[in-house]
Amino acid sequence: MTAPSGPIYENHVFVDPDVLDDYVAWIDDQARRARELPGIVDISVFSTADDEEGRPGRTCQFVLDNDEALETFIDGLAAEIEADALLQFGDSISWHERILREDTSHELPAGEMPECLNCGAHMRGQYCGQCGQRARSRLISLWELVREAFGDLFELDSRLWHTAVPLMIKPGLLTFDYLQGRRARYMPPFRMYLVLSLLFFLVAFFNPRETFGIFYDPQTLAEEEAERKREGQQDAEETLEELAAEGIIVGAEGLPEDIQEDLEDGFNVRINGDGTAETECEVSEFNISGPEWLKRRLTPERLVHVCEQMKKDNGRQFLANLFDNVPVALIVLLPIMAFVLKALYPLSRRYYVEHLLFFVHFHAFFFLILIMQILIGRLDAVLPIPEAIGVLMIIAASFYVPVYLFVAMRRVYGQGRLLTSFKYVVLTTSYLAGFILTMLGAVTMAAFAI
Domain segments of the chain: what residues? Predict the structure, then answer.
């Protein structure tokens, strides 16, 4: 059986929730009336996405036999249906109508291929009705590849911007809308979280001079390294002078000659209380209280090995491992904090995954704030902006984070200021404790991975 190819008359409405049941019953009656008329092949009524005001959407499609039947329908029953709808419901609905026709102006794949190359569904028109893939077999162009890669970033009506803007300026709105069923206009929560976290670590830890060092003049790099070395040496000397002035240590001239030489070479040297440099990794015997598997792994010999490995490369591998573990630690923190929210709102009748969604959105917002702060901190390198303005913007963004969390809790859970304030204090305290524990876990994993 082939699907009808005649024109389709479609009316689409958004209905106020208080008259939704009456409208559904009314449109069903209109559909029954229309089925009795000649020239109408099929009628379908179905739900569609809500509008921005939260009004449910309903669509009714009338499939006509040909253009003549369409003209008769528009002049007759369609006009009566629209007039009756406005009379019955007035401002409680918004009415839109259009005519749909089969697309025959675009070339189908070679050989008039009847099936989609992607999912195998029967093809009608330029796009597959099942999976949405375009109905052509030729390779796409270079421009289409670029447009697909950056389309969501530069198109102002893309879901990326529809998600990022309310995420930044409307605390809790994404979570509230998602729980109310308004989801199609936004990026999926976990995809948004992963995109923003990846973007944050790219912005925070990407150093073009290290990655693309071959494109930089070696003499310029050497001069910059020498300048950083001089600044480090100056900072070290100032610190030693302050410690000497306070009587904690003697001046640099009273230190051992090897330490003075290290200072002159710009090395960082840690000084013990007796004024000697720590040059050996020594760990005394100690007892670990905890599970047996931890005792077998956290041994003095292993600690000495970690210390020696860190001394070899000045901790570079440790920092690299730590940066790799931080995203995992933050993901581990999400379900922990969702349990805290579940305990704080036992009567909210929300599932655990709904509390988890709240913190997925909050962490995504946090990454977005951090990205903005990093970029603001780097603006002085490219724009003549006073440093004080950049500092004030970073401080303002930092204060915005706790305010955002409080407002988001009120919007999503709908409780008063006093009760929300109490739960806010408990939540932030728990969050700080959970953050410290997960970061300690990340540090431990990073240390024992070198």
Answer: 8-100, 159-206+313-450, 213-279
